[in-house]
Amino acid sequence: MAGDNRCTKSEHLQRVGKVEECLMLGYTRSKILEEIGQKYGVGESQVENYMTAAYKRIREINDRNLEDTRAWLFRKYIEVFNRAVEAGNIQEQRGCLNSIAKISGAEQAPEERPAAIPDLADQDLRRDLKKDLNQEAIH
What we know:
The chain is mainly alpha-helical. The chain has two domains: 2-64; 68-138, no CATH class. It is 75% helix and 0% strand. The chain has five helices and no strands. Helix 3 (44-87) crosses helix 5 (122-138). The longest helix has 44 residues, at 44-87. The radius of gyration is 25 Å and the shape is rod-shaped. The chain starts with 8 loop residues before the first helix and ends with a helix.
């Protein structure tokens, strides 16, 4: 009897899409199992397979959107940083670096931060940071 419920790849994608809709509408697991099972005449294990595929697609879309957003933000902060370097605005440069660290996940927890280096001249800091960020933007 299971062979009667076989579906094409296109139908499978449509069913997974329907499960995605249910998930985004906040349906409970039991409600999805019931509705999708009845609608397509499949058992609980097949609906679970659709749910797994739906969760995977949702994660992939979210990950892709997040990476696109991070890349865009990174480019914008580099532009602002370079303008701040040209204007000699150290405070804005540091703000950009902090923001870049946050969006890249490189920001350290307060207890892990190294001690400040008080003897480093602002001119040296600007030169080194601009060089590092420009190399990072190229990669």
